[in-house]
């Protein structure tokens, strides 16, 4: 994926990485997602839809003892009107800019962390959703800069405060109809057989998928128990502690589930590679007709549930032992991804304060 800024036209476009016209470069993330989407369509006549919830922190610059520091611009609580009022010039401009790009904003509000906000995008087919997310991140950061602030999507800016995720809601459609949702109330959990198998594949491969959707050592500072980020391997119905959460938003017929949320996805993840890995895992579930275990709808018990990787090293180990992605991504791309993750681990190990510089990258 390549982002190109054209200042004269005040325009931003996305471009594919190609060896030559019509031939994708084997390292192109957008092509990886398209390949996985084509397999889902060709084999099952299905499309995966995605809608992202973007959490970010607005920071302001101060000078302390001659050094520049970035601190949250506000300390108001969750859904505070004062926080929204203080940031309203930025937030209104962000919403208007995204609207001009054809990107629908469903919700925009102050979150629970210091200086933290959440921007929710309307769901669409996953390839388009990844583009929308890329544009959204660029728009938010550019407009914050215009107003003298820095917007960061880093997973954990302050280790003593709440982290920021990029939760993604997923569903399956066929001919425009939601087929993740059961057709009637006879399904035990309101999810179709296709939906259960797809979700089971993702749950089965989740430890290795984390290397794509939580790609930094800092990501695992966020993925902690009792923080609504999903630290254990299970799924639940409206369970905020579940990494995979079945949801029934307003308007969904009673007893049915319209989509499921993945809590582990964060703002440092490449959306194309992250969705491609998720899609590949779901396809594996459909092919093998994997069974979805019973949900856990209480606070997770660490004595009975498997802990998800608590570090990028553990997730990378899980990925090295899992070969389901070979059909969906080239060996060179997978090798490169693993090498980059290893380099991130090495850098983080040598520089304990490395996360503080991530605000300028994410």
Q: Notable features of this structure?
A:
362 residues, alpha+beta, Creatine Kinase, Chain A, domain 2, 11-stranded mixed β-sheet, 8 helices, disordered N terminus, Protein fluG
Mean pLDDT: 89
Strand count: 15
Number of domains: 1
Mass-distribution shape: globular
CATH superfamily assignment?
Glutamine synthetase/guanido kinase, catalytic domain
Q: Name the structural class.
A: alpha+beta
Give the biggest sheet.
11 strands, mixed
Quote the beta fraction. Answer: 15-25%
User: What is the helix content?
Assistant: 25-40%
Task: Give the CA-CA distance, first to last residue.
Answer: 15 Å
Topology pattern, helix = H, strand = E: EEEEHEEHEEEHEEEHHEEEHHH
State the low-pLDDT regions, or none: 1-9
Enzyme class: ligase
EC number: 6.3.1.2
Keywords: Ligase
GO molecular function: glutamine synthetase activity
